[in-house]
Amino acid sequence: MKAIVNIFLKEGVLDPQGKAIHHALDAMNFEGVEDVRMGKQIVLKLTSTSRDDALQEVEKMAEDILANTVIEDYTIELI
């Protein structure tokens, strides 16, 4: 089983990387991009066969070390 953890800045937290990407897209004449937010993705290969156990363990990982929950939110997808 794999877990995909997407981590992104909370709304209201400044995102200088996202602003730089947005500026570059504008400079390259890409139209229709209203805003850009930068994030990161972590893919974990798990040995667990129980979806509930895996989700519980990955949530603990995200809360304890993968995300800075003061300024970041995250989503978890199990596949």
Overview of the structural elements:
By secondary structure, this protein is α+β, with helices and mostly antiparallel strands. The protein has one domain: Mth169, Chain: A, CATH 3.30.1280.10. The chain is elongated. It contains 2 helices and 3 strands, in the order E-H-E-H-E. Strands 2-1-3 form a 3-stranded antiparallel beta sheet, with helices on one face. The relative contact order is 0.35. It has helices at residues 16-27, 51-66; strands spanning 2-9, 39-45, 72-78.
List the helices and strands and how they pair.
Layout: E1 2-9, H1 16-27, E2 39-45, H2 51-66, E3 72-78
Antiparallel strand pairs: 1-2, 1-3
First CA to last CA: what distance?
Answer: 6 Å
Count up the helices.
2
Strand content: 25-35%
Biggest sheet statistics:
3 strands, antiparallel
Low-pLDDT segments, ≥5 res: none
Briefly note the CATH topology name.
Mth169, Chain: A
Per CATH, the superfamily is Phosphoribosylformylglycinamidine synthase subunit PurS
Shape: elongated
- Counted up, domains total 1
Q: Class by helix and strand content?
A: alpha+beta
